[in-house]
Design brief:
Elements (H helix, E strand, L loop, with lengths): L2 E5 L3 E4 L6 H10 L4 E4 L10 H12 L9 E7 L6 H10 L2 E6 L19 H10 L2 E4 L13 H16 L5 E3 L5 H9 L4 E5 L1 H5 L2 H5 L16 H11 L6 E3 L8 H4 L14 H11 L6 H13 L7 E10 L4 E3 L2 E3 L7 E6 L2
Parallel strand pairs: 2-3, 3-4, 4-5, 5-6, 6-7, 7-8, 8-9
Antiparallel strand pairs: 1-10, 10-13, 11-12
Helix pairs in contact: 3-4
């Protein structure tokens, strides 16, 4: 197979940041994609429909000329989110989900929810209007090992939550463990999961053996090989509950390589090709279209894109760095060779 044509994919989890960052992040996000779910963890966070509307306009102002790529907005849940805001979000037509961050879990998450038990009225409203709950599935208790945060979250919070709200659509974002994949497979059809390219391509050995590689540091953190293999199996299975969510997040080279390097991997320079690499290595290119183009819109209740993209078997070298703001960023897979390339 030297070429493959698939329905234009969507990215169901991405970070664009704001202001000058949008000059780089928006055109990259539109590369090969039809739509993107925009994470709301700005400073200050996008907690209101009005803030989401303003942010959407700033994003659209940087959309490439001639592109019809669409940003799908998300509200950031806090302890003070009200059911009225959920109803307003549902009526807006451009807000497609609400994001749960446990306070302090990742970049710009300090305003996140401190106690899921206090969110009953909000989750009930979301269930009523069909609003998707996107969950950063980790606990942040200091006594829990960072490699165990996801598994503890599932057992401590997620099982009971999906039982309590059986009609609530829940996405366990950027899953990283075998236990997460198993939970999603065994749950109802109202539970889905996104999987990132970094968690499919790498494990913690890639990040730590032979010296720390800060550009592979992300949250949730990379896990051991057995979990990576479980995620690959889930992605290529054809199961409709798993779909593409890059979690692409731009950070400057200096911010990643500092004494306290930040979490996040930028993958939009080659997102589709990075996923294709995984599926090709697994002998599952026939399953790629479902994972990247079909399962996500089906879960969100949105139509499939009406245009296609073409991937050609073509070796090409990923750049060592890319311009970003007033400096550069180091993209995921920098300096490595991929075997598939998007026909621009």
């Amino acid at each position: 197979m030297d070429s493959i044509t698939i329905i234009r994919p969507d990215d169901w989890h991405l970070h664009l940041r704001d202001d000058q960052a949008l000059v780089t992040s928006v055109p990259a996000a539109a590369r090969g994609f039809g739509r993107g779910i925009i994470m709301p963890n700005l400073t200050p966070p996008v907690t209101k429909v009005a803030l989401a509307s303003d942010y959407r306009e700033r994003i659209l102002a940087q959309r490439p000329e001639g592109s019809d790529w669409q940003p799908l907005m998300v509200l950031y849940l806090t302890d003070n989110t009200s059911p009225d805001e959920i109803y307003a979000a549902a009526d807006s037509g451009f807000v497609h989900g609400c994001k749960y961050y446990p306070a302090g879990a990742t970049t710009n998450s300090d305003s996140g929810v401190t106690d899921l038990n206090n969110m009953h009225s909000v989750f009930t409203a979301m269930e009523e209007v069909g609003m998707v709950l996107q969950m950063h599935g980790e606990v942040t208790s200091p006594d829990i090992d960072i490699f165990d945060r996801e598994v503890v979250f599932i057992e401590r919070h997620l099982r009971s939550l999906v039982d309590q709200y059986p009609n609530l659509k829940v996405i366990l974002e950027h899953i990283t463990t075998e236990q997460a994949a198993d939970f999603v497979m065994s749950a109802s059809d109202n539970v889905g999961a996104t999987i990132t390219p970094q968690h499919l391509l790498y494990n913690r050995n890639h990040m730590l053996v032979g010296g720390i590689r800060p550009h592979l540091f992300c949250l949730p953190i990379l896990k051991r090989d057995i979990h990576q293999q479980a995620l690959i199996s889930a992605a290529i299975s054809g199961n409709h509950k798993f779909f593409l969510g890059t979690d692409s997040a731009p950070h400057t080279k200096g911010a990643k390589e500092s004494a306290c390097g930040c979490a996040g991997c930028f993958s939009h320079h080659a997102a589709i090709e990075l996923y294709a690499e995984v599926f090709d290595q697994a002998g599952a290119m026939d399953k790629l279209e479902a994972f990247v183009s079909i399962n996500g819109p089906d879960f969100y209740g949105l139509p499939h894109n009406t245009t296609n993209i073409v991937l050609n078997r073509q070796s090409w070298l990923l750049p060592e760095s890319l311009p970003f703001e007033d400096t550069v960023l180091v993209p995921l897979g920098a300096g490595t060779t991929l075997k598939w390339k998007l026909a621009e």
